[in-house]
Amino acid sequence: FFPQACTIVIFGGAGDLSKRKLIPALYNLALDGLLPTQFAVIGFAIDAMSDEAFREFARDGIERFSRRQLDEEEWREFSEHLFYRQGDFGDAAAYAALKARAEEIEPHFGIGGSRIFYLAIPPSFIETCVFGLREAGLVAPADQDLPFTRLIVEKPIGRDLESARGVNRALQACFAEHQLYRIDHYLGKETVQNILAMRFGNAIFEPLWNSKHIDHVQITVAEAEGVGTRAGYFETAGALRDMVQNHILQLLSLVAMEPPWSMRADVIRDRRLDLLQCLRPMRRHEVDQHVVRAQYASGFFLGKNAPGYRREEGVASDSTTETFVALRLFIDNWRWAGVPIYIRTGKAMPKRVSEVAVQFKAVPHMLFNTDTDHPLEPNVLALRIQPDEGLALRIGTKLPGPKVKIYPVKMDFRYGSTFGDQSPEAYERLLLDVMAGDATLFMRDDAVEASWQWIQPILDAWASSGERWLPEYPAGSWGPIEADRLIHADGYDWRRL
Ligand code: BG6
Fold first, then answer.
1. Whose CA is nearest to atom 2 of ligand 1?
2. Residue-wise pLDDT tens digits, 428-476
3. Residue among 242, 244, 353, 428 whose CB has most ligand 1 atoms within 8 A, to mutate
4. Transmembrane stretches, by residue range (predicted)?
């Protein structure tokens, strides 16, 4: 797969995602020599802006958010590929003008009309934009190789199963599924892709990767930040929709899927889908038994008093939006039967850390003297997604000395020390893949719907509970006592991270 000559049109080009992630990602790809010389970027949004002003906006984004520093010479060359077109997404004339602008720009760069439309916009605009594109004749026929049209859609895809189906229907009314790239940026993270490399590029893990040897799995995605400036969106979402439905279930699907027989996009996506379809459905009345939701309250954190969620700007003073979720789930298939999977995610936790920890079963017969002060610790394989990316295996070794005492030690691989600190950002990889037409790391319609299907009873149970207060946890703590009870009930504890 090679990136192909194309124009990238960023809907919402003057917005936050464009500035923080997309333009810096494209700039880094250019620095790495990975972009074709035949490319152009058109920012498209309601804000009035000249090409020059858009270039300034892009420069500012790169200076503030790029992985690598701005280099004047590279920037000059890169910036010549950046353009802007103002337009109202609901106005047919704006699409006609966008088309005319693209047709004017493309010949200068030798681009033959292939285009990627990136919808970096609030979800309520998706339908308007895709129909606008279709009506303006901006969508190439699905069976045409060149020039191609591809559409990138950001999460959230819907806010429940029904609305997700609605979004997919609208997308498919205008595009063929193979032209669609639904982004879950977790799939673009190096460490997340390394899960497949680790599982299927080594002979030693796969024979152990099943209920015979694995005791349980814990997935933690903790964020130190509170809701920040995103209350407008987060109030309508909550942690279950924001993190579990997409990022965490995608992570789980890579950790737990069956071996694919090839690395072809649809083979991998089929396996991920299979896994999502094996998640044991929760009935509404079981939700309280398996799922804990909570909200952060004020706390002393990072040397200062942090406000509770209900006191954050833009949050209703009686909000019942959850900022934390912990849950237990099971995968009903041959490989995972009976292995509990624990998931927790939250905002305003003690630190930003994401990991998948696979705990193996105890040895079948204990040869060594252990005491309560020095129990034999189980083997744990921890896949550290971020920060401090890497992989650690805890094993028991003999403590030097005359007695036979087993002591846990860690075999530790760190990306930083092995490969340097320059792993590409998720968006770099994902944009490159769309330019190359590789959909492996994107979500197919059926997978999006399968994960909503599993989430839906939890949403329903919460909606019907009528609860006015959620359990609380102090900002800067690991979650509410209820989350501890959930895992203690099975005789385990959350990992100390
Ligand atoms: C986004 C969520 O998808 O992922 C945010 O909407 C969250 O709420 C973010 O903070 C986390 O991404 P990362 O890459 O910082 O772990």
1. 242
2. 999 999 999 999 999 999 999 999 999 999 999 999 998 888 999 999 9
3. 242
4. none
User: How far, in Å, are 84, 165, 272, 332, 444 from residue 450 at the CA level?
Assistant: 38, 10, 10, 15, 10
pLDDT at 421: 67
> What per-residue confidence (pLDDT) applies to 34?
93
Closest CA to 8 of 60, 61, 75, 83: 83
Out of 247, 251, 296, give the residue to mutate to test ligand 1, the one with the largest number of ligand atoms within 8 Å of its CB. Answer: 247
Catalytic residue of the set 216, 247, 290, 365 = 247
Kindly give the number of the ligand 1 atom that is closest to the alpha carbon of 237.
6
Interatomic CA distance for residues 159 and 104, integer angstroms: 39
Q: Whose CA is nearest to atom 4 of ligand 1?
A: 243
Residues with Cβ within 6 A of ligand 1? 223, 242
The answer to whether residues 10 and 18 touch, using CB atoms and an 8 Å cutoff, is yes
For ligand 1, atom 10, name the residue with the nearest CA.
Answer: 223
Each residue's pLDDT tens digit, 216-259: 999 999 999 999 989 999 999 999 999 999 999 999 999 999 99
E strands, 70-200, where?
A: 82-86, 115-119, 149-153, 180-182
- Ligand 1 centre to CA of 100 (Å) is 36
CB 298 within 8 A of CB 305: yes
Give the residue ranges of DSSP H helices in 155-230.
Answer: 161-174, 190-200
Closest approach atom of ligand 1 to CA 246: 3
Active-site residue, 247 included? yes
Residue ID of nearest Cα to ligand 1 atom 8: 242
Q: Do residues 310 and 295 make contact, with C-beta atoms less than 8 angstroms apart? A: yes
Residue 478 has pLDDT above 70, yes or no: yes
Alpha carbons 56 and 293: distance in angstroms, whole number: 43
- Is position 360 annotated in a ligand binding site? no
- pLDDT above 90 as % of the chain: 87
Residue 18 to residue 43: CA distance in whole angstroms: 9
87-102 per-position pLDDT tens digit = 999 999 999 999 999 9
- What does the pLDDT look like over 116-151, one tens digit per residue? 999 999 889 999 999 999 999 999 999 999 999 999
Alpha-carbon Rg for the chain in angstroms: 24
pLDDT per residue over 10-25, tens digit each?
999 999 999 999 999 9
**242 is an annotated ligand-binding site residue:** yes
Region 49-57: mean pLDDT is: 98
Q: Is 185 annotated for ligand binding?
A: yes
Mean pLDDT of the chain: 95
What is the atom index within ligand 1 of the atom nearest the CA of 242?
Answer: 6
